Fold these 3 entries.
Entry 1:
Amino acid sequence: MRQGLTGVLSEAAAKLYERLVVSGGLSLVEHPDLDDRPETRELVEKGFARKRYVGAPLLVPVEPARAIDNALMIRQRQLLDQYQLLVRLRDEMHALQQAYRSASPLAPEIDELVQVMTDRAEIGALSVELSLSARTDVMSLETEHFSRPPDPRSARTLPAEVVQRGVRLRNIYSRAALEIDGAREMLQLSVEAGWTCRVYPELPMKLVLVDDRAALLPLGPTGMEGALFVRAPVIVAALRGYFELLWAASVPVDGGAVKLAPEQDQVLRLLLTGMTDAAIARHLGISERTVRRHVGALQEALRVNNRVTLAAAAVREGWV
């Protein structure tokens, strides 16, 4: 039996269809039980077989190319029905959400924009739910503050379909966070799960951002003492802008090892030869401002404040 058929037919129906194709058809007189078998009904309903009553009644196969076209049309109709069901469900949930907010003791407009959460389990669950619902981006900041030592098994993994639908998963770690036991292994597992990770010298807080529509802000260092669930567009946009500034100034890491972006690596290597910013800019075909931005990011990542110590720190870290 060809494995491909089992993707659209049951195993029994796939076997019967292949038998029909090989034989050219089966007599309903010689096989009286055939008419009432579920696999026969399945083949007829899905357009893989038909009953012919010209002369002796037969169950005959539909040409494979047409049968597959029939199966595709049925699947397309099913997908359309499912999509329409989801649209109706979304509209119904929106109406229920409005009713829920109207019944809230808080003013609906305030409850919609900012919510204080103190239940640890609820905060963790909301973080996961937000990530699963992402349409374009999930962004987070991770500091060295944990309520308990990080367990690699707690690495944030999301179902493969989240990544497959094009959602970008980005995480920035403070340098101190990567120095905690277990953190490097947790980071490696996160990278394998689809996260792109970077490191920044110091971060003021943890943060979870989803698209341009929601954010979780901690009320304490670990983020589990309490959190603000923010949906105010102006605040979320400001937090998104802050995250992007940090992202541009942070250094990529791959499985716990610092991995410079190609242009950062080129700037660093040319800087170590003694070239000026202007010469580096001409050599790479970029602006002097871009060169200075890369140098500043490298200094921040290595926690140095001048180019002399930058060179020594880059060698010490094995970047060159």
Entry 2:
Amino acid sequence: MSSSTTTINRSSQVITCKAAVAWGPGKELVMEEVELSPPQPMEIRIKVVCTSLCRSDVTAWQSQLTPIFPRIFGHEASGIVESVGQGVTEFQEGDHVLTLFTGECMTCRHCLSTQSNMCQVLGLERRGVMHSDQKTRFSIKGEPVYHYCAVSSFSEFTVVHSGCAVKVRSDVPLDKLCLLSCGVAAGLGAAWKVADISKQSTVVIFGLGTVGLSVALGAKLRGASHIIGVDTNSDKFEKARLFGITDLINPTDHEEPIHQVIKRKTNGGADYAFECVGDTGTVTTALLSCCDGWGLTVTLGVPKVEPEVKAHYGLLLSGRTLKGSLIGGWKPKSDIPKLVDMYIRKEIPIDQFITHDLQFADINKAFELMIGGKCLRCVIHMPN
């Protein structure tokens, strides 16, 4: 008697799974059954283990500027590779990974440069489709459901380009590491890589969410002597001190312009200012809060409205600099594993940024908490 074994090639199969779908700007997410295509060449399909809500998810969900719906948001996630597409050699089934909202192809001009992390092939995708063929992998009853940042982690499974994921050690908790795929990495990199904060310097941070407090942590670890946090929500202040903030300002408590308050506290202006709000008016305020000669402003936020920055040319003529920062300037596939190692060595306390753990079914609660200023990061746990 003979027997035979049939091997199922999961990488060629369409699967169905649950996803939290946004049907319109600001509309509550709806748990839907979606079809997810198999990974195409150089793509991987991931079983999402944990994902967290980032402020940019909320901004894009609320935005009326370029609405793309129906859509699956989420980009800050950890998971396990379920299947791999043709040509993928870097990953195999069972690998633990973090998703990356901006990738690294390793071969383009920017990837080969030490001056940039703006990959020309796998850079930030804003149109709701995949990099390779400008199509979606999600659908409902044959109709497309669009991606967010080519990740879409508010789903039990997702498909990403292999250049938009990074392999991590399997002995590190994925519910903590997901924060390194965006928020915490963005703040630390802005402090260390983009600004290169020096010892005994003065720093002012506008916006005390996860990104702003990651900047504060980075400044503290670099030895900054004076770290000022600015936020209109005083409920954040007690938590902020844990990350190294030495002085806290609520602009609503002052009648004079806040940049004048800061200049008085810093003897003429801060060495470094960070805009972590997502407001171009705050970018101008941050520039005004810097000192002449060498004051550096770094902007990290994603604005919902009025994307143009307005500033008098004299601010720049006097020696100030304005720089942008995407995921902290890190080359994501190359650099994020170093942050994972730092977490393992207990050099960066990722756990302190997690204020809530929620189940996938309660994802709308995460939106409520963030909009209400009641959380730093809500980690959303997928069903086993």
Entry 3:
Amino acid sequence: MKIAFFINDIHTEKDNYTTIRLARRAARIGHEVVLVGLSDLIYESDESIAAMVSRPQSKDYEDDAQLLAELQHEDSALERVNLTQFDVVLLRSDPADEVLTRPWAPNSALLFAQLLANQGVLVLNDPTHLTDASNKTYFQTYPEIVRPKTAISCRVEEIKRAIENFNGKAVIKPLQGSGGQGVFIINQDSQANLNQIIEATIRDGYAIVQEYLPLAADGDLRLITLNGRPLQVEGVYACFRRFNSTGDGRSNISAGGKYEMATPDEEALKVAEAVAPKLMRDGMYLTGLDIVGNKMMEINVDTPGGINMAEDLTGKDFSGAIIADLERKVRLKQMYGQQLTVTELAVL
């Protein structure tokens, strides 16, 4: 199987990223693996899609760090390949990382991905619906029962009105963002700085204001889904609890949060059940649900992370399960050809 991973840039990848774990697992099995930066795509005059790519040179690496070190080495050269001849493209770039320096890059890459899908390449998550999910407004299209009460605006007075409606306790964050960046907890202690917080949040556009859920003080659950359902291997869920013991209020690992093994309770599984139909309809093959109690705080459809952490905590081969599932999809695609759309294949 030929598999390409779309990433922001090989030099900004980190060895604790799920993408690197998946790439190492696929290479170890013997699949042809390449990583593609968002600015390295090429539309050919014959209408095929090419790219300058980074390619692992071995099948066996001691760990993720060794693979990434090879790809980022100063002597590592990019190679030109025809992506139209690949079986699978996994879209793993984070649009939030491009907002300030390369705002054109994520949408351009999604359009390239749509062209590849039209030419018969299995592209996941479905690039058309990922375009629809370009910011957190997409979250509001999921069932109301699993969402916190939310307001969205870039007007200071409207944001303050929403906070008042939530009894002065709320979470405010940029509409475009990830990893806990620019997230503020609004309460009595932060009211004195409210104007500065709002101005900082709306500096680059709309802000999203959510009611504060008291259970969030204990952290949240990251539950990874595959084909619209919670990912399990040998009865163990790809799930962990993220928390912050510093009083920061953010549980994201990239924001200094910690993590521990967790099994989703009945409420979390009901949340996953409620969002499954839309995940499947939208071709959201691999996602990360961030759950607090019976509510979903966020859904990561661009670069759902945590596979490496789930594996390290449980000893289960979640990355291997994902690669095996991709192999199955490629077999189905070969059997059915154009009878199955990308969106259908994404969650079969």
